[in-house]
Design a protein that fits this description.
By secondary structure, this protein is mostly helical. It is about 80% helix and about 0% strand.
Length: about 120
């Protein structure tokens, strides 16, 4: 048992270092994807007729096939390509776009409306 602790002791001592290095690398990448997704959603809002209305509609009921979402995903892919970054797969990019839609739409949807929407649509088990 003591030899096992001695063998793994180096990892326990270096784990915080590995954690901080990985966090800075991955956190930076995720932050870039998030920034690109927010820019893409803003662009999609301006390109789509009734952009703000569509933003709130998608925020209240997520639909990946919605034209606003599809425009935002296409914009995000193009922005990532122009920046020389590899785009995540479609599901990963949709996750970043969905988070950006939530961030942007929350400025237009009052908190009491969000709570009312949640009470009308209880989580399914």
């Amino acid at each position: 048992m003591d030899t096992m602790n001695a063998k793994n002791g180096w990892f326990v001592k270096l784990a915080p270092l590995f954690s901080s290095v990985l966090e800075s690398i991955l956190g930076g990448i995720f932050q870039k994807y998030g920034t690109v997704a927010q820019t893409a959603v803003r662009s999609a809002i301006t390109k789509t007729d009734g952009g703000l209305t569509n933003l709130v509609a998608v925020y209240q009921r997520w639909d990946e096939a919605h034209p606003l979402v599809q425009t935002a995903i296409a914009e995000a892919r193009e922005l990532l390509r122009m920046a020389g970054l590899n785009a995540p797969d479609a599901a990963g990019l949709a996750t970043h776009v969905r988070a950006a839609i939530h961030d942007l739409a929350s400025a237009f949807v009052p908190l009491d409306e969000e709570q009312k929407q949640d009470s009308q649509n209880p989580p399914q088990v």
